[in-house]
Amino acid sequence: MIDHILSILIFFPVVAALFGAMVQKDSIRAYGIAVSTIEFILALWLWYAFDGSAAGMQFMESIPLVASFGINYTLGVDGISIFIIILSTFITLIGIASLGDIKNIKNMILTLLMLQMTMSGVFAALDAILFYVFWELSLVPMLYIIGAWGGPLRVYASIKFFLYTFTGSLIMLVGMLFMAYFYYQATGEWSFAILDWYRLILPENFQLWLFAAFFMGFAIKVPMFPFHTWLPYAHGQAPTIGSVILAAILLKMGTYAFIRFSLPLFPDASVFYMYPIAILAIIMVIYTAMVAYAQKDIKQVIAYSSVSHMGIIIIGTFALNVEGISGSIFLMLGHGIVAGALFFLVGVIYDRRHTKMMSEFGGLAHVMPRYATIFGIMMMASVGMPLTINFVGEFLSLLGFFKQSQILALLAGVGIIVGAIYMLASYKKLFFGEITNEENKNLPDINRRELVALIPLTILAIWLGVYPKPVLEPINNSVETIVQLMHDKAQTTEAKSRIPSPLKVLAIPKSLEEAH
Amino acid sequence: MLEPVNISLESLNLMTLAPMLIPIVGALLIIVIDTLKGGLHKTLYVVLSMLFILMDLGALTSASDTFSINGTMMGAFDVMLIDGLAILSQFIIVGASLLFIPLALTSKRFHEFSYPEFFALFLFMISGFQFMVATDNLILIFVGLETASLALYTLIAMHNRDKSFEAAVKYFTMGALAAGFFSFGSMVFYALTGSVEINQIATILAANNYADIGYVLVGTVFLLASIGFKVSLVPFHTWAPDVYEGASAAMAGYMSIVPKIAGFIVAMRIFEFLIHSNVVWLEVILYAVVVVTMTAANMWALVQTDVKRMLAYSSISHAGFVMAAVMIGTTQSNSALFLYWILFAFTNLGSFSMLWISRQKELPNGQSSDHSYSKFAGMIHTSPVAATIMTIFMLSLAGVPPFALFWGKLYMISSAITAGYTVLALVMALNSAIAGYYYLKLVVYMLMKEPVNKHNGDVFSGNATLPLKTIIGIAAVGTVFAFVAVNPLLEFVTAFVYNSGY
Prior knowledge:
The complex is a heterodimer of chains A (516) and B (502).
Chain A: H1 5-20, H2 28-49, E1 58-66, E2 71-77, H3 79-97, H4 105-124, H5 128-137, H6 139-149, H7 154-187, H8 194-198, H9 204-221, H10 230-237, H11 240-265, H12 267-272, H13 274-294, H14 298-317, H15 322-353, H16 364-367, H17 369-383, H18 389-402, H19 406-431, H20 448-466, H21 469-489, H22 493-498, H23 502-505, H24 507-515
Antiparallel strand pairs in A: 1-2
Helix pairs in contact in A: 1-2, 1-4, 2-3, 2-4, 3-4, 3-11, 3-15, 4-5, 4-6, 5-7, 6-7, 7-9, 7-10, 9-11, 10-14, 11-14, 11-15, 13-14, 13-19, 14-15, 14-18, 14-19, 15-17, 15-18, 15-20, 15-21, 17-19, 17-20, 18-19, 18-20
Chain B: H1 9-12, H2 18-36, H3 42-70, E1 73-75, E2 80-82, H4 84-100, H5 116-133, H6 138-157, H7 162-193, H8 198-207, H9 213-231, H10 239-246, H11 249-255, H12 258-276, H13 280-302, H14 307-328, H15 331-357, H16 379-382, H17 384-398, H18 404-418, H19 422-448, H20 466-480, H21 482-499
Antiparallel strand pairs in B: 1-2
């Protein structure tokens, strides 16, 4: 069974969702929690069986799908993908467990289970077409979640979300088909297997074009400036659970895909585009942080801060060295946990007051002390306080990029400071001062169902901030092989020097360990 | 004294005619039965037609077995040409007909199905299309085309609503024009080469090195125009939305698949040798037609308020997509054409059948047309299963994986890339993205809007009976589980196309 654990992780939720159609409406919540708990336990079992010291792919499965065209159902995980899969099952579990009383709850839970399938699928797929299948399929449940349970502009927001991503991914699909064609020309066989593609060394100008095609798909998903305009709408209109999953997992698909596809397939192009992308990312960090400061709606603040943090992840990824990439992967997890928790927290207050305007609140710390505490911790984690989860990721990402360009890394650091400003300002507006609005006088504090979601997230945010090693080490091992591969594949002298072989740099983490 | 004609029966190879003759026999039988005893129930005729179509399918299967052993067969004074293209396209024609004919078993009464002539004409039409694809003789193509078209005009008119007559007359007029173009184009080629066999024409033209290129241009343009009418390429598409709207939804779905595949086959036979002879302007003309068809039809589809008209424009756009395969003209692209059209047949027949089961006899207040978008508002609340199935069909048409049409698009775009048409590949991809919007619009209405009229949902399946639901079930299963079938289909199709020399 452990050999097929990835297939089980992918298809168990969808089978459960189909059967779930028979479950009676009032009992569906228990069913959803049961199914997602099993799914989460399966994911933990995967972690338990996973060999963290090995760098390559594990639990590989392969079944020919369209053999004559080289499309296979190939799955596998390494240190880069395994934790995002676990996080996705975890977020789905607490998302379903903390689901408030909404209309059509049965459809919502079945849709969430479908979404779980696509999330596991994207991160486990090792075949480009299989990856694309799950990547596109993940749009449909999200479209439904935003469109059916969202705010007043929900239809517009959901269509914008769908079409934006759909367009980008179609261009990416053309890129994938080109890649397969080049592979066919080189070897005489069609193949969409990513591991096969890794072995292919392309001329630089091909790399530049293909990188651009893939970039369109990934950048819209992340979303990178200037393609980010769909995200505030989607977050603004989505129900709490939609925002949580969107921020925690779906956006990570884009940054994950950069590491899985763009960097190892096109090392020379990655070096070529490093500065332009880093500059875009820094604009994204600083500009969206400023926009966030100007927002009146607390959910929009977090939405824009989300974009801002994705910028740091991109910077870490395009540091093109082990520290930066490992840091960006760790920051993906960290941001998933923290942003997810923050959207949950906004959902808590929205359920009570049905408004997200910060001007309606103030002095909440008096009436909701537990809520204020958790929000405070998460806000600190979000701005990257040391000993919280985001600090590790942000520090490593910036450290990585510092080696490429000190000025740009410094600018990105400024972005983080602006982040601290708007988060603290929002916190002040919400929680401190006198209670000015009568309606806020008798707000009930956080209840048990909400704590179920928030306590585990808080524990994780602090635990992984203090002791990141169990997660960081497998990530590091896998990233080293990827960077080594990029170093070996790089053709231009600039690329060779920009992508250092990790074998030489191994000394640094060791010295850090001695310092402990 | 003339010499007595002496031809052995074996050299005529009459078995090549078997698949076309079976539906003709069936049609005659239906007419005979009606003459002997009138007023029989439509179920008799439906089942009889199905039996004959099944026999037709059997004959085709044996023809395809013979083809995979012996290769291309000629027959009946070498007029018939049974190659891989003929067999594959006949499979599509007959298969789609088999899925169509049970749609006559509606729960509401539509008077066209009570006439046995409907079924006789339908069978004649099938055999007409079969003749059209199984020959490279321009005259027989013309005969097949006219047999099928005249039957089809009548079938549309029999739906007996104001708009149906309008549709039939419109289609007839346009069809007559197309027939005129076709005969004129054929005449030019006959004048140039003294032959009506396409392979002869190709040989003779190549032998004198395309000396009369001006006349070739004239002939080609006329043939392109006539085929353009048949497969609804822009700017010859104007009849399509009106005709689809006037015809019954089931018939519209049928028309979006079967006549077009026959048209594509003729296009492949005629244009393939011209493209491969490096006649540059033909490629330019086709390129322009393909891009304009895909893009313009998409734009028009965006602004439609009626689902059926939207689907009409969308099927024009799909026709442009597939015409691109003819233009690219490699084995991979021609195989992609068949793969695409087989998968498209399932999805599109399914979605038109969904419209068909929701057909109302009278329009309720606040609904401007038979299948306006607003009719489907809030469908998920009242009939969740139907709404889910319709959503799947729409997503498939939009090219969302892993549903059927995604694989067709994937292979089609790949064939464009392999042949070096990078820009075309991007145009295809972007058009799929534009198309996403109008398919999504229906999904939005079904899943996210509140119902406009208060009803208990029976409007969405008011016309449904077990046979109709079965057909929709088959289409849905074919759409969802296409990924299993793609590999065998692709191998089968590629082998047939390759062995026919395309």
